Amino acid sequence: MNMLRFAAISVLVLMAGCTPKGEKASAGAAASKPVATINGHAISAAQFGFFVKSVTGKAGDAALSGEQRTQVLDSLVRAEVVAQQAEKDGLDQQGDTPATLAMARLQVLEQAAMANYLKDRKPTDAELKAEYDTQVAAMPKTQYKARHILVKTKEEADKIIAALKKGAKFEKLAAEQSLDGSKANGGDLGWFSPANMVRPFAEAVAALKKGETTSAPVQSEFGWHVIRLDDLRETAPPAFDSVKERLVQIVEAKKFKTYVDGLMTAAKIEKSP
Does a structural domain hold residue 192? Predict the structure, then answer.
């Protein structure tokens, strides 16, 4: 139960960050019988139920045995005792604590606002299909299979290119001289999309024909590359059903962004220079 106890404490800290100092209980919480009262501060059954759900992932405390419930409640009570003492000591106004509590409040309320806004605005199949088409259209159309040799200097890379022109084996030079972990496989990077590589590397690969090696070293933030394109193929988009859950998240995020953009437009905002 140690992990359960520490998780319980962390959740209480977050909840404390969203409760005004000195508040005893909300109107809703007061309607239910407290599971505990500490120095006049009531912990309602609703609060405890939320607490248990945060720890176990299941609603209510039915998932807990009697002993576990006691231990979780004890952890909650202990955390409340510590939090009250921290407030008495003024710790809620010291260091990063005020900012941390304020950010916790913002995050929780933003999540609540998003859930409330989207509850009656679930993405339709037409919206999901439209988003799917947009995402597929933005996907790279080609994947590449290439090898590379990474070295520290342009001079080293120039020597490698010269050796390759004289018939040296790319795989052998990669195993002997490359600084990259792919050296164990003769510099083989497997199949990849341009978006997975740094821009200079991706552009150099895209300019090659199958079987070609870069005629000049390619510099990136990692060093100097000598690259050989072994193969290329058309990118197959994922099946709609396999990414539907992700599409729901994207569409909902876009809807909420539009809502927030409207709030921003209506809000009176003053920024300090």
Answer: yes
